[in-house]
Design goal:
binds zinc ion, 136 residues, five-stranded antiparallel sheet, HIT family, subunit A, globular
Length: 136
């Protein structure tokens, strides 16, 4: 395993605020959120960029984003949920899922370190919304 922070998070060697996980993916709260509720969808296997995932895994990553978007929007009262992929920070593929309240918020310069308790509380709120069935 390379010396990679996301590999260590996926292996639970470094603690994180986990929203959901399965064999292939872990979804955590970003510790420097652009907005409260900013999540990272991370494949557990080390691949450097999202486009290096095989097609099935790439599709699953965006399916997870889709499934989380409604619970995340409800938990944060966001107007929209944005998706961003850059990959300059950590050389392990990840997708940012970010609650947006207005235009031009999808900007990494807005990221601020968050309080651990606030992150934990937000993750609990999102997880609660994930269990709620909403009739549409
Ligand atoms: Zn890695």
């Amino acid at each position: 395993m390379p010396d990679c922070i996301f590999c260590k998070i996926a292996a639970h060697e470094i603690p994180s605020h986990i929203v959901r996980e399965d064999e292939q993916f872990i979804v955590i709260a970003d510790i420097k959120p652009v907005n409260p509720g900013h999540l990272l969808i991370i494949p557990k296997d080390h691949v450097e960029v999202v486009f290096a995932m095989d097609d099935a895994r790439y599709a699953e990553a965006f399916a997870i984003a889709k499934r989380l978007s409604d619970p995340l929007r409800r938990a944060t009262d966001a107007a929209k949920i944005g998706i961003a992929v850059e990959g300059f920070g950590v050389d392990h593929a990840h997708i940012h899922l970010i609650p947006l309240h207005g235009p031009h918020e999808l900007n990494p310069d807005r990221a601020q370190p968050a309080d651990q308790e606030d992150l934990a509380a937000m993750v609990e709120k999102i997880k609660k919304e994930m269990t709620v069935k909403h009739a549409e």
